[in-house]
Amino acid sequence: MNAATELIARQHLIDPEICIRCNTCEETCPVDAITHDARNYVVDFAKCEGCQACVPPCPTGAIDNWRNVTKLKPYTLDEQFSWDVLPGRTELDDHVAEVQADIPAEVRAITNVANAGHGGIAVPPWSASHPYVNLYSIGNPIAATVSGNLRLTGDDASSDIRHIVLDFGHKPFPVLEGQSIGIIPPGLDANGTPHHVRLYSVASPRDGERPHYNNLSLTVKRVTEDHEGKPARGVCSNFLCDLKKGDTVQVVGPYGAAFLMPNHPGASLMMICTGTGSAPMRAMTERRRRRRELKEGGELVLFFGARAPEELPYFGPLQKLPKDFIDINFAFSRVPGQPKQYVQDVIRTRADKVAAMLADDNAYIYVCGLKGMEAGVIEAFRDICAHQGMDWEKLRPDLLAKGRFHIETY
Ligand code: FAD
Ligand code: A2P
Are residue 278 and residue 251 in the same domain, yes or no? Predict the structure, then answer.
């Protein structure tokens, strides 16, 4: 490397045209390099370590922008705050591209795969359908009409979780199971700026909540307390849970190009979720239920955690599904007289089944729901592998590279 090359750095930037200001990147960044004003989300060159932890969670891909700059003259925060669009490629970008062109394609490909899931590009199952993303942005949202709002949790349950159906009329809004949409809550925040977009997983299959209708459903929990248990009124969840039939909602998206289901016959799904993390699992299960008579094979195994049966969204319909169609494992944490169980505890009780699926290239694993669950599930996988003569640390990158392991926690 010569002295001139040492002065070049890759600067991480956010595309202001695509960014939906959902705050996910700022929450994710481990070194607090991302900040925002009323206009833009920006990355502090002095703090960013290029770890890319923020890249996979970004729903739009706006976060994944890089420019080659000289270390002495990166784009400042003030410059980034003022942008309406990203600056074009620089001479340095062209120079670096020329240098990289000399690196054999196989070497670049190996680097990309090794990065998958470690801040690199997350990949979908090989047989996933191609998703549409970013069809609608904050500057160009689509209006959806509420065609249903049903409480899913029992009357005596502590949480209010709702099944909300949005109809898009004759406007296109194609989605796949596993994708999310963004909702723009009406009104302004305490600083007088528009509320940021909140994301919600689609809970219905690709052909609609009602088959062959241009609609989709969401599973929304009314947030009434913050993560520490203090009273709080969640802006968007309360707006959604209070909607009436006929109301209009501003929607952006769709988002998500990796947390998608495989389409090939014989593919099995292991679905692990808590609370509203059941939304994408419901979408995938319903997709498979509607195609059952095609007898395409492949198993469905569900691990579902909730406080108690009455707190479980879709508990009734789930229980009606035949045992040979789906293998359901509940974990209840607050049933009086019963020991507290989390999904990871139940996963351990099914160690043989889980190990067989982890080892099966036709099995795809999905985790969605509480952020806190993620570490527990990974720990359970690590232990199960150790007992079955497998090495989780080696298996994990392989699962990621094959699009077999997908996590969406919030
Ligand atoms: P805010 O006004 O943003 O927050 C109010 C207070 O509550 C804050 O203190 C905040 O820290 C705290 N808080 C925020 N969320 C929670 C929570 N879940 N539990 C406890 N305290 C909280 N939500 C769903 O209900 N269903 C989904 O299918 C769903 N899918 C998602 C998919 C993705 C990819 C992501 C990133 C998030 C998803 N969420 C989902 C969460 C959703 O985007 C909102 O964060 C959630 O509805 C809270 O928004 P709010 O505006 O009501 O609360
Ligand atoms: P808990 O009773 O300890 O809150 P919620 O109802 O808040 O959406 O949570 C859904 C389920 O996830 C609850 O049973 C909750 O148990 C459980 N849970 C909470 N923390 C974790 C964790 N770290 N790992 C797995 N499950 C968890």
Answer: no
Examine the domain organization and report whether 308 and 222 are in the same domain. Answer: no
Q: What percent of the chain has pLDDT over 90?
A: 75
Mean pLDDT of 129-157: 94
Which of 152, 272, 342 to mutate for ligand 2's pocket (most ligand atoms within 8 Å of CB)? 342
Q: Comparing C-alpha atoms, which of 161, 199, 158, 194 is closest to residue 178?
A: 199
User: Which H helix or E strand runs over 27?
Assistant: helix 24-28
What separation in Å is there between the alpha carbon of 5 and the centre of ligand 1?
44
Q: Which of 180, 201, 204, 278 is catalytic?
A: 201
pLDDT of residue 101: 60
Residue 132 lies in a domain: no
Q: Is 326 in the pocket of ligand 2 (CB under 6 A)?
A: no
Number of domains in the chain: 3
Cα dist from 283 to 75, 153, 193, 207, 381, whole Å: 43, 18, 34, 10, 25
**Dist CA 343 CA 271 (whole Å):** 11
Q: Is-cis flag, bond preceding 254, omega within 30? A: yes
Which range of residues forms the domain containing residue 199? 142-255
What's residue 112's pLDDT?
34
Q: Ligand 2 in contact with 313 (CB < 6 A)? A: no
pLDDT grade for 92, boundaries at 50, 70 and 90: confident
Residues 272 and 400 in one domain: yes
Closest-CA residue to 220 (of 151, 167, 161): 161
Give the HSE-up count for residue 298: Cα atoms under 13 Å, Cβ half-sphere. 24
